[in-house]
Request: fold
Amino acid sequence: MEIGKDGLIHSLEDLKFSEYPYTYTRVVAMRSKLFKNQDYDKILKMSNNQILKHLQDNGYADEINKLALEYSGIELIERAINQNLAGNFSKLTKICDGALKELVIIYLTKFDIENIKTILRGKDSGVSNKKIENTFIPVGSISSEKFKSYLLKSDVEETLKCMDFLSKSAFKTILTYYQKDSNLVRIENYLDRAYYRTLFLLSDKIPKQGKVFKEYLTKHLQLYNILTLIRLKKIGVPEDRIKNNMILISSDVKFARTSYIKRLIGLKYENMLLELHKSYFGKYIAAGMDYYEKTGSILMIEVGLQKALFDLTIKLQHQNPVTLDVILGYMFAKEIEVRNLSIIIKGRRLNVDEDFIKKQLIIGGLR
Amino acid sequence: MALDGLAAGLIGISASIAIGATAIAAAVAEKSIGTAAIGALVEKEESFGKGLILTVIPETLVIFGLVVAILLINLIGAH
Amino acid sequence: MLKTQEMSKVFMVIPKDRFEKTVDTLYKLKVFHIIEHTKTDEYDIGSPILGTDILSDIQVRIRSIASQLKINLQEDIQDPLYSGFVNEIPTQIIKLHNEVSDIIKDIKKCEDKKRSLNQELKVLETLDLFTDSAEIFKKSSHIVYRFGMIHDLDEDALILENEHELKTIEGQPHILIFAKKKDEKHLDEILGSYKFKSFEIEKYASDKRKLIRKELEQNLSQTNEDILQCKNQLVLLSKMWKRKLQTFNTIVSEKLEKYNLPLSMGITKHSYFIKAYVPTDILYKVKHQLFIATDRKIIFKIENLHHSDNVPVKLKNPAVVNSFEFFLKLFALPKYGEIDPTMFIFLSFPFFFGFILGDAGYGIISFLIFWFLKKKMPQYAKFFNILLLSSISSIIFGYIFGEFFGGADVFGLFTLTVYFNRELQMIALLVIAIAMGFIHVNWGLIVGFTNELRSHGLKKAIYTKGSWWLLQISVTLIALSYLGMIKAPVTIGYALMAISAVMLFLGEGIIGIIEIPGIFTNFLSYGRLMAVGASSVGLAVVINQLTSQVMTGSISGYIIGTLIFILGHTINLLLGCMGSFLHSLRLHYIEFFTKFYHGGGTEYKPFGTKLEG
Reply:
């Protein structure tokens, strides 16, 4: 059964969700091994080689052992952590079974979409195939070979033609979007919308635990919308274009409700930020707002918002320890860990001040 | 004078229900706990001891059932 | 023996110019359990000292090499033959790393080549199934051909008209079709609609096909040879470098551990500071050594232990008793300050094990097996000691129960006196088992009482543990009153029970009250000593009966009988050992430990010792 006309293709008969205590506990144990505050303090003091050794001691050994034969230095670190991310997620699909596995696989199509977006953007701007290949994240259903074969297509239109996880009507819509104004943004937004719609429909089909899943999804969606809103408003994109980039679902969710979003878009930039300040995300973006006032950069606001989501996963994990948010929370936490490491490496390369790097890291607990 | 055949039979059945039901209850409880303990154990070997203890906590149920069953069986012989 | 090693907390400040000497001494002494300093607003953590960068790089390479050459780095080997080369380690490792990396790259290239050769051969073989002549391809320039895989072909007019052949190879339809050159485009369109995948066969469309094939096959076998050669090179390297690499690894990781210590220390402008736990009895000796090494330039202060400190625990038990520390490591180490129960387990675990297995024959066989295994696997010697003691206990109980492989008759040589028949006296056995439970549980309560007395004082001890004794006394009184054995009225018993409940509430809160029936189920739980034991005996008796029935006198009877005897008793022995082990252990962990054990102690891991695993 396809999801609506505009969704991703997945057969979603009622997922018979049962209990999976083995998987949940195992994932909780995996999460407890992720890096904590003290680890990041230490890593910030280490040189690149020392970081490699530290990673080897803490769960990244397999990837580093293999890749060290070909690469070294910063490139080794980046490749190792990306491969580790992929490896962990495929481990996840291996230790889940039944309906939970289906859910995880659908959730991971996020990476398929990311990879497709990378190709489209790369082709659109004429970046070399080699460079695009370096940003490939081997998670999800698009294998390395498939990715390479997509790269070999001559242009954007050919690549679009081979996205076989979209339904026929969805594909037609996307093609028309592109043929009309060669704008990738609409396509990207469309893909994101399809993804979220699938997940929301999925959460409705899961009895009991679906509610917690929905809570996580809604916060995620709000985050996405707010970030897009802030970024676009800052650049000064006209109102109606902004609206096209939001993902709106007709529900009672604040930052996804059409009317509320319209109002926010209509406000002036500063007023909009104040409005945000009053909401649930307020306390997380307070520091970011100060930084924005001082430097005009929205970087710390974005960090604050991600932090909000991160804390939410921790809270959900404690409140509902034997449900599927444990899995989602872990996936998110692992992505955050990889992101943190990436930021440290890049920051080090650009000689950014240690304290400033630390502020950008997303670590559990409100600081 | 032993109890009448039907009464004795019924007592026998109730004794077996006592044990059977508590055993099933303990099994159902320990199922989830046991699998969760294994899951934690795979990632962290240190959790073996605590996992083992948590898994066998519901066994007390069976002992209650056993006591009830013994008391019931005694009723047959007591008369 | 009943106490863990006493520890003291020390605080050291080390000037930066004395750092190397200090850290070398700390490492050599192997007694400091370091307390990691967490970064605070006033005091940051230190950075690793210079030199760690290169060493870390080398360490990463060593591990990477080891994983490719399949060398195990866990063993702590330091071969004196190679220890002198310390300064050359970086150059040698980098050279080796490049060598290995080149070989791996070669293997990869060869495998790619192999893959493409195999693909080509496959196409050739498939073509051969259609036709092995080259003539048909030489027709005229007006004829074109297509060859390849196709899906769900539906006979179409144009295709039928033209010369074609359709074969299914390995479940996949393949087609070879000829057409006029003018129809080429149309042909491609039709083929395209059936998802045609074309194979390039230009080069095979000649007389030289057989030659080409031979060439391909030769190339393939050559490539396979190359791969094999590369892999042999790796094996050779592995043998050559094994001990050297392990030695280098030990040296490098030692240095790194020392030089990374600042990450665990606090830092000020001119010095590092750190706190650690040290066993009290060697405290002054250690202080003396440090002062010698650093010209008395460091500060070494002793601090008081706080109640909330997470003091590490080092178990101190004499020779054979310390084998039972295995059970504590499996479960949880004692918290610092509480009684170390290893000695108790040493006394009661083999006792329960023997009580359940209770067969002299099984005991002797298992003793021999465990003795043999202990010789074979000396690293698990302690674990096998536990089993050896348990086997001896089984022999003793087997003697008391008069059981030798289930019966009192020892291979017809003599008969054991049956002091207590497990089969016939089951109810008495049950009573004895529960009585042992009563003793064991109360023993636990005594230990718990002592623990509470030491840490929280008499009042708390009486409320949390003494209340259980009062409870048991009250229940006994009630039972005796009902049975009319004593003259006192029942109300006294009930009154005492109520008092004990109140005391329990004061000591442990509502949880204590909920646990009240728990103690009686704990007693009953020891009934398993009888139940599992009885099942073991019962099975042994059945096996013996079967054997004697079959051993009628004919040769086949003897053979079958012996088989049944050996097989049956082997299975029963295995089940018996497993059951005895697990049930005795469970009784200790759950019925015994819950009466006094807190657990949660951290293991004593001094700086300079290798971390396990």
User: Anything to note?
Assistant: DSSP finds 18 helices and 14 strands in chain C. Residues 342-458+506-595 of chain C form one domain.
